[in-house]
């Protein structure tokens, strides 16, 4: 099952950040939002925060399509209302595309498992000779 990572910033305002977190509690998130995420082929999703930076992880089905999810979200008035509400708390990362790009995909730059399994010896320290 593929795992995807995204980043986004919040407005650096403690009251807004607290409100954003409240909206994401199990008691406050709209059921239609949870349903739309699951219907898109997302099996699990988590959001982590440090200061005003968010990182989102998604475990998705093999046939998950970000484009199909975006199209379904754009056609769903309840998702659009949620996105409008969330936009009051969010701000684009530097370098975001014009036109409202919010969550930006992250690229993995290190894997401990891959490093441990490297066969070519490139992780060994250079010899002194």
TrEMBL record:
The keyword Iron does not apply. Transmembrane segments: none annotated. InterPro entries: Carb_Metab_Mutarotase, Dimeric_a/b-barrel, Rham/fucose_mutarotase. Keywords: Isomerase. One of its GO terms (molecular function) is L-rhamnose mutarotase activity. It holds the Pfam family rhaM. SUPFAM superfamilies: Dimeric alpha+beta barrel. It comes from the Bacteria. Its EC number is 5.1.3.32. PANTHER family: UPF0734 PROTEIN DDB_G0273871/DDB_G0273177 (PTHR43239), UPF0734 PROTEIN DDB_G0273871_DDB_G0273177 (PTHR43239:SF1). This is L-rhamnose mutarotase. It comes from Pseudoxanthomonas sacheonensis. The lineage of its organism: Bacteria, Pseudomonadati, Pseudomonadota, Gammaproteobacteria, Lysobacterales.
């Amino acid at each position: 099952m593929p795992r995807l990572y995204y980043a986004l910033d919040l407005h650096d305002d403690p009251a807004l950040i607290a409100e954003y977190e409240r909206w994401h509690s199990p008691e406050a998130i709209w059921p239609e939002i949870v349903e739309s995420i699951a219907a898109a082929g997302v099996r699990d999703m988590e959001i982590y925060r440090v200061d005003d930076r968010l990182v989102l992880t998604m475990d998705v089905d093999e046939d998950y399509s970000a484009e199909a999810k975006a199209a379904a979200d754009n056609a769903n008035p309840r998702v659009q209302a949620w996105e409008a509400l969330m936009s009051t708390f969010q701000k684009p990362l530097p370098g975001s595309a014009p036109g409202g790009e919010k969550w930006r995909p992250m690229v993995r730059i290190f894997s401990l498992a891959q490093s441990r399994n490297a066969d070519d010896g490139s992780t060994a320290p250079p010899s002194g000779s």
